Amino acid sequence: MADRYLDDLTVGETWTGQPFTLTEAEILDFARLYDPQPMHVDLELAAGGRFGGIIASGWHVASRVMREYVDTAPFGATPMLGVRIDELCWLKPVRPGDALTVRREIVEATRSRSRSDRGTIRTFTAVCNQHGETVLTFFNLIQMPAHAGVTL
């Protein structure tokens, strides 16, 4: 993607990434390191549990969504700084083999009052599985330059 700045963006603009799949091995590897709860790491216990099988850690899904954002580079090489995540919601379990698609929308674009060379955008992110079910949502506040030549 070409480099894009605050001045180039429009509220209501959307983009959708390419689907990515979480494998059972990837789910187990992540969970063993970062979220070793039975529903994420123990195939036998998970099979008899409330989800009927192993599911991905929500943190794993969120980290893969971040990776998809970096890979997609919707603003090119424009320097940006994540400020916060709001209303992170895990709505449905993600299972091995699920193909996830990320859709983002710019819901606000605001120039800084104290530093007119930069501002923030607020995006809404929704992640859907291959069945069209929304599995994760959140709002993200990102600081970015208003135009080329600004460093954050």
UniProtKB/TrEMBL annotation:
InterPro entries: HotDog_dom_sf (IPR029069), MaoC-like_dom (IPR002539), MCH/BMMD (IPR052342)
Organism whose genome encodes this protein: Caulobacter hibisci
Domain annotation MaoC-like: ranges: 17-117
Name of protein: MaoC family dehydratase
Signal peptide region: none
Gene3D superfamilies tied to this protein: Hotdog Thioesterase
